[in-house]
Amino acid sequence: APIIEALGEADSYYEAPSCAFEGMDKMYTYGSFEVDTYEQNGKDYISSVVFKDDMIATPEGVSLFMKKEDVTKAYGDTYTEEHGMLIYEKDGMKLKFLIEDDEVKLIEYATTALDVQ
């Protein structure tokens, strides 16, 4: 709640009953990124942040439409690869880069908490 409040009013908002938990999944879209949440024990938790365009970048400077080489230069070769995604894991989070035709098509920060539920 404090993070969503700090971000201000979303450009769009969508909610639906969760497939994984009791409660609602919520999607807040803010221009260049989307914040997805899930409800657990009456509280909302962030499940993912998805980049929508190349107007924003990761703290290491990687944005959409860059090359796979740019990703590995910034993050190294300690990733797993699944379904065309390079996945880096750290501190309960996954940083995912979808690579198609050697270009970053999607960047997503996702919690690993959902993997064990």
Beta-strand portion reads: over 45%
Give helix % range.
10-25%
The low-confidence runs, each spanning 5 or more residues with pLDDT under 50, are none
| Strand arrangement in the largest pleated sheet | 1-2-3-4-8-7-6-5
How would you describe the shape?
globular
Secondary-structure element order, N to C: HEEEEHEEEE
The strand count comes to 8
Structural class comes to mainly beta
Question: If you had to describe this structure to a student in words, what would you say it looks like?
Answer:
With about 120 residues, the chain is mostly beta strands. Helices cover about 10% and strands about 50% of the residues. It contains two helices and eight strands; from the N terminus they run αββββαββββ. It has helices at about 1-5, 70-75, and strands at about 10-15, 25-30, 35-40, 45-50, 80, 85-90, 95-100, 105-110. The chain has an eight-stranded antiparallel β-sheet with strand order 1-2-3-4-8-7-6-5, with helices on one face. The mean pLDDT is about 90.
Key terms:
117 residues; mainly beta; 8-stranded antiparallel sheet; 2 helices
